[in-house]
Every structure is written in C-alpha cells, then in structure tokens.
What we know:
The protein is mainly alpha-helical. The chain has helices spanning about 10-35, 45-100, 105-130, 170-175, 185-235, 240-265, 265-270; strands spanning about 145-150, 160-165. Helix 2 (about 45-100) runs antiparallel to helix 3 and helix 2 packs antiparallel against helix 5 (about 185-235). The longest helix has about 55 residues, at about 45-100. The mean pLDDT is about 90.
Amino acid sequence: MSLSINTNIAxxxxxxxxxxxxxxxxxxxxxxxxxxQIQTAxxxxxxxxxxxxxxxxxxxxxxxxxxxxxxxxxxxIANGAMNQQVSILQRMNQLATQASNSGALSSNALNxxxxxxxxxxxxxxxxxxxxxxxxxxxSLLATNAVLTFQLGxxxxxxxxxxxxxxxxxxxxxxxxxxxxxxxxGAQSALSSVQTAIDNVASIQASLGASQNQIQADIANLTISxxxxxxxxxxxxxxxxxxxxxxxxxxxxxxxxxTSMLGQAQQLPSMxxxxxx
Length: 276
C-alpha cells in the first residue's frame, strides 16, 4: 500500500463504496415501503413502459366488464318491456278471435270488445315510448336504435358488440287503427296480431342471443383481466422476501463501510510514526 498525506486513496475508495451502498440501500428501502420494484422510469425504463401498457389494458378490461354488465341491463329492460307487449298482443289475439265469432255477438258486445282492443293498442305505444335506459330521451323501443357497447380495452370492432333494436309501437307492429266491429275487420286484426306476436318474439330471440354473447364476453374479459393483473404484478411488485434479504445485507455493508471509512481516514496519521 502506498501511503500519502495529500491523497488518501484508501479513504476515497471506502467512501465510494459506502456511497454506492447507501444509494442501493435507499432504493431497497423505497421498494420495501412501497412494495414496488418499479416506481419510476429510472428504475427500469423498458419495464416501466410495459407496466404502463399493462395498467392501461387492465383498466380498460375492468371498465369493459362494467360496460358489459350495463349492456345486459339495457337488454333486460328492453326484453322485460317486450314481455309485457307480448302479453298485450296475446290478449288482443283473444279479442280478435272473439270478435270473429260475430254471429254470436250483438253490436254492443262487438263495440265493447273493440274498445278494449283499441285501448290495448294504445298501451303498446305507451310501453314502447316509456321504455328507456338512463334518460327519458334514450328510448329503446320507440325507434330503430343501434346500440354499440364497448367491451374491451382497445378501439377496435373486435372489442365492441352492436345490437339492433326494432320498433315495437302499435303502428310498427301493424296493429294500429284496426277495428273489430265487423267480421272482416276482426279477421284482418286476427291475422295482424298473430304476425305481430311472431315479430316481437323474433326480436326477443335476437336480444337473448346478444345477451348470451355479452355474458360470454364478460367471462372472457374477467379471465383476461386476471392474467393482465398477474403479469403487471410480476413486473412491478417487489419480491418482499428477496428484498428484505437484500436490505439486511446492505445494512451490514453500510456498517462495515462506515467503519472502514473511519479506519482509512486514520491511515495518514500512521505516517507520523515514520518521522524521526
């Protein structure tokens, strides 16, 4: 070892080692206190970018699951309203069948049947116009609505589900303005009502298929979110057992480095013993 009063190489080396250990210890303490091994881009630049992408995907999947649940609610509201409309149409079918038996009905009886039939037709319109989701202007059955649901994390058509809702007003179903006061009118109404029942049932079948599709998408999104969160965790979260072990070793190095720096700083005084 070369001893010099002006330049204490041993002390400089001990200080550099102690400073490096201190920086590493600070980083380890930060990891232990936060539970994260990547907190900023300085910790791992490429890992930080990947982590942000995974976080964005996870957030998108989480919202996509919520969107899917809302979509099912929309379809359930529409389907529930159409259930009521089918019940009304079934009653209208009974009335039209009854009116077709005109030979056994008086004019007063026909008028009474027709009055109920007309009232039920108006009720179809009321249900169609009042069936909304979230807003009175967001009608589901009074317009030919095209509903698009975002069920994924990205702006692509594969992350979206589109559902077509058709008119179910009395006029769109072909049961508006009908009269049961004559045999011919009752026969025409009977045919129209039965066609309307088939049309509403067909619309409901389509909604049921869309609802099943969305439920399957939600199940897939849930699994995808779990996998993405696991990938994000393995990249960003600190291995606490390993980090605690590193922390213990660094504490020992800090103590040893501090002690050695003190010893190295005493080396120049040893040169005094060489002076006679």
